[in-house]
Amino acid sequence: MKTVGPVHLRDVLADFEKSPHVMAKRVARFRETMADKKARAGKIARQLAKSYAVAECALRHESPYQLLAATILSAQCTDQRVNLVTPALFQRYPTVQDLAEGQQADVEQIVRSTGFYRAKAANLIGMAQGIVTNHAGEFPRTIDELIQLPGVGRKTANVLLGTAFGIASGVVVDTHVKRITNLLGLTQSANAEQIERDLIELLPSKEWVNFSHRLIHHGRKICIARRPKCPDCPLLSLCPRVGLPPLEEV
User: Fold this and answer.
1) Neighbours of 226 (CB within 10 A)
2) Catalytic residue list contains 15
3) Using an 8 Å Cβ cutoff, are 167 and 161 in contact?
4) Mean pLDDT of 202-227
5) What is the DSSP letter of 185?
6) The pLDDT of residue 30
7) Which one of 15, 38, 98, 174 is the catalytic residue?
8) What is the pLDDT of residues 183-193, one digit of tens each?
9) pTM of the model
10) Mean pLDDT of 101-106
C-alpha cells in the first residue's frame, strides 16, 4: 500500500483550486462550530476506545517512583530505549530514597544511552532528593507541587497523576498527540500547552488520561509520521487530514 508523508497546510489549501470537489469536505472542517467540534472529538474518543480498548502507558513501571523516573528519561528519547535502560537503573536504585543518595557519575553511566544524560542524571537525583526532603518520601498529587521537582514539567506531571493515581489533571501532549491532533483539526497550534488547553475544552475530563494513551498507540500503529496508513485508519471519516494530500492522489 502506498502511503503519504506530511506536507505544509498552505499546500493542502492550495489544492482546493485544483480539486474543489475533493477538498470541500476537508475545508469545511475549518468552519465547524465549537459544538460540532466537541461532538466530533467525542466520536474520535469513542472510536479510539473501540480500537485500543487497553490504554496503557508505554513506559514500563511498577510504582509511581519508577514511572516518574522513566518519564524524566523519556525526554527527547523513545519509550523503547527508556524501557531498555530503566531495569538497570531500578536494580541499582530500587527506591526513591536510594536514588536520592545516588552519585551523579554512576547515574550518568546508567542513563547515558537516553541522551542528555548529564542533565537527566542531575534531574533524577534532584527529583528524588526533593521527594525525600520536601515530601517525606511520598509523591505529591498536584501539578503545582510536582512541577517544583527538577526535570518535571506539566507533561511529566500529567503522566504521573493520570497513570499512577488516576487523577485527570490535564491531557498529556507528546509528539504523537501534537501531530495527530493537528491532522484531526482539533487544534491549530504547535505549542503543547495550547494544544492541551484546546483538548481540555473539547473533551470531558473522564477522557483526558486515556485519550492521550490511545492516540499515542494510534500514532505508532496507524498514523505513522512518515507513512500514515490513512485507508486503514478507523478515524478516517472523522479526520480532515490537515496537512496531507487528498487520498485520491495517494
Assistant:
1) 8
2) no
3) yes
4) 95
5) T
6) 53
7) 174
8) 999 999 999 99
9) 0.81
10) 98
* 12 or 186: which leads in pLDDT: 186
2 annotated active-site: no
Domain boundaries, the chain: 9-56+171-249, 64-165
All three cell numbers of 7: 506536507
Which superfamily, per CATH, for 64-165? Answer: Hypothetical protein; domain 2 (1.10.340.30)
The contacts of residue 85 (CB under 8 Å, 6+ apart) are: 73, 110, 111, 113, 114
Q: How many residues does the chain have?
A: 250
Q: Which residue in the list 155, 198, 221, 232 is annotated as catalytic? A: 155
Question: According to the model, what pLDDT value does residue 7 have?
Answer: 41
Architecture of domain 9-56+171-249: Orthogonal Bundle (1.10)
Share of residues in the chain with pLDDT > 70 (%): 87
DSSP string, 15-53: HHHH-HHHHHHHHHGGG--HHHHHHHHHHHHHHHHHH--
